[in-house]
Design brief:
By secondary structure, the chain is mainly α. The chain is built from six helices and no strands. The protein has helices at residues 2-13, 18-40, 46-56, 59-68, 75-85, 88-106.
Length: 107
């Protein structure tokens, strides 16, 4: 049923502008990235980590993650998130956005 709803939403979006489609895909990707970050990277501050992953994902990675949002994370989802997290720009982002949150939690 959930997959059918996602399919219907995708068909409805086909007439939307590229910006609206991108925003929808990013939001769908966020939902699945959240689950992967919480499960696989429990020490990371969730919101900054999700932002860093989404901000540093390619368009193809966003589409792949968004498509996984319908049925939930798979091993392929975790692999894509892992690829994004290990990019130098994502690591820099995590250091800039995530480290202050970690330090606040420790203090």
């Amino acid at each position: 049923m959930r997959a059918l709803c996602i399919l219907a939403a995708g068909l409805a979006l086909s007439g939307c502008s590229p910006q609206v489609q991108d925003a929808f895909a990013r939001e769908a990707a966020r939902s699945v990235v959240t689950r992967v970050v919480v499960e696989r990277f429990p020490g990371l501050p969730v919101e900054p980590a999700i932002d860093c992953v989404i901000d540093n994902a390619t368009a193809a990675q966003i589409r792949a993650l968004a498509s996984d949002a319908a049925l939930g994370p798979t091993p392929a989802t975790a692999e894509v998130v892992g690829q994004i997290i290990t990019k130098p720009e994502t690591i820099n982002c995590l250091g800039t956005r995530g480290l202050p949150v970690l330090l606040q939690q420790a203090g």
